[in-house]
Queue: 2 jobs
Job 1
Amino acid sequence: MKKIVVALVALLSLAGTVQAQTVKDLLETLKVKWNTPTEPFKMIGNVHYVGTDGLASYLITSAQGHILVDTVMPEATSQIKANIEKLGFKVTDIKYLVNTHAHIDHTGGLAEMKAASGAQMVAGEADKPLLEGGYYPGAQEDTALTFPPVKVDRTVREGDKVTVGDVTLTAHETPGHSPGCTSWAFSVKDGDATRSVLIFCSGTVALNRLVTNPTYPGIVTDYRQTFARAKDMKVDVLLAPHPEMYRMQDKRAMISDGAPNPFVNPGEFNAYAATLEKAFEDALAKQTADAQEKKN
């Protein structure tokens, strides 16, 4: 299944040349992995994985309340609720719902979780209209990509903070994948050490059009600014919206009492961002060549 998911994500990156029906079929296949349950667990410090096998959702806890970062597909939202309770926490203690980017696979359960928790909804400023409209940028009419709209209570820009108790998340603007794509940085305790954590929004091209009729104006500049910013980020623990982006399951299997936490891997984020940058430039070159060929 892992190989299938990787192959499908690669195909989706060529979505500028894929017919709408094909995209819908691919998404239906991806949902098999995305909606498969997995047991919740403590990752490091006060960070807990409460998502599915194929889509990440993170519960960051404190004595004064919790922050939930991202949800999953609408039909799998009940899994998040159950996972939170399995770990001994309450949905009603969630104070903030925080989003990385406004795509169905990470926003599908936000409206339901907001109603269940009473939490405040926080997202990147440029993604607010997408979240409140429930659609993919540049694809308002594509019903395969729509999701339940959610009211955004607060928008953030670079350096803005979300705090509950002793937990503070700092927003970093990393646009491209979506207009308001936001990565979230914070610190956790790992034994006697303090580790820097980054929940990276994403840097993949995915369904985005980069040329001719771009998904949104300025998208190429946004991607390049994000990759430039990534080079200066110092991260001990990389997390992301899709668990395969940071080999979550492999690391989870390595967790052992008394052993170093496998999620601590300084330099992993910078290496990963470099691969994303190359993939972006390759996709841009291909889309540009395809557009030129159509003109000729």
Note: Residues 1-20 have pLDDT under 50 and may be disordered.
Job 2
Amino acid sequence: MPELHITGDDVADRLLSDDPLALLVGMLLDQQVPMETAFAGPAKIRERLGAFDAATIASTDPAKLVEVFQQTPAVHRFPGSMAERTQALCAALVAEWGGDAARLWTDGDPDGATILKRLKALPGFGDQKAKIFLALLGKQYGLTATGWESAAGHYGEPGSFRSVADIVDAASLSKVREFKKAAKAAAKGS
């Protein structure tokens, strides 16, 4: 199993390392909050819900799931909409993949382009998020699918520090933050 170091919390990082669903949900939550907060979300959900599997999350009363997301510290700064998105993601996994997130990248020995297409079909996963997640699988999760690097675009480039896919320690986290800060500044300047 991979050993991820994204959140700075051993329990949260172990869950991400051991559970493909946790990694996928962490990626879903990775917007408008620090990466560490997003990827620590699955551990908070598991602790508060008492379970962490797609079927349980998909079948949880939506109001209860929002409460799980709202508890302090909150899972996300937008607990209502992100609880809804997490539930939609889990429902899609149950309906299409038997509740097993890893099947997205293992069923039928798919190539990188196929995995990217499968990720983009998920609720809450657009092109960029799908490419970042594909790069995370390839760079840190042991994915060896043919063509994953090219399917992941710039995020698949070795030695780049563009996203969560490149975070392995505090130094790489700092480099990713610097890249994102520079990209935001460049976007504002244009």
Note: Residues 10-156 form a domain with the Endonuclease III; domain 1 fold (CATH 1.10.340.30).
